[in-house]
Design a protein that fits this description.
- By secondary structure, this protein is an all-alpha fold.
- It has one domain (about 1-85).
- It is about 80% helix and about 0% strand.
- The chain has four helices and no strands.
- The chain has helices at about 1-20, 30-35, 40-55, 60-85.
- Helix 1 (about 1-20) packs across helix 3 and helix 3 crosses helix 4 (about 60-85).
- The protein is globular and about 40 Å long.
- The mean pLDDT is about 95.
């Protein structure tokens, strides 16, 4: 159950970075493209959350956590878009 909490934290941070931090948008074209991609932002939130919750650093675990987070954030974002489009 703890892992679900960490993945939800990853998605929450991803959503906040993409949608709730307007000062990040409009600065640079590459940054704007990055911010529209939940997979990309999710990757970076994955290693951030890993570093926040780790007891010992293992590079492979950090990488795996990052890719798992990116997949989770992408699936959650697509699911949210699908739900919003049906309402």
């Amino acid at each position: 159950m703890e892992i679900l909490l960490f993945f939800l934290a990853c998605y929450g941070i991803c959503f906040a970075i993409q949608n709730k931090l307007p000062f990040l948008h409009g600065k640079h074209d590459t940054l704007d493209k990055f911010l529209t991609c939940p997979y990309c932002v999710g990757f970076h939130t994955g290693w951030m959350v890993y570093l926040l919750q780790m007891e010992t650093f293992v590079a492979l675990d950090c990488l795996l956590w990052s890719f798992a987070s990116s997949s989770f954030c992408y699936i959650m974002d697509i699911s949210a878009q699908l739900i919003e489009s049906k309402t």
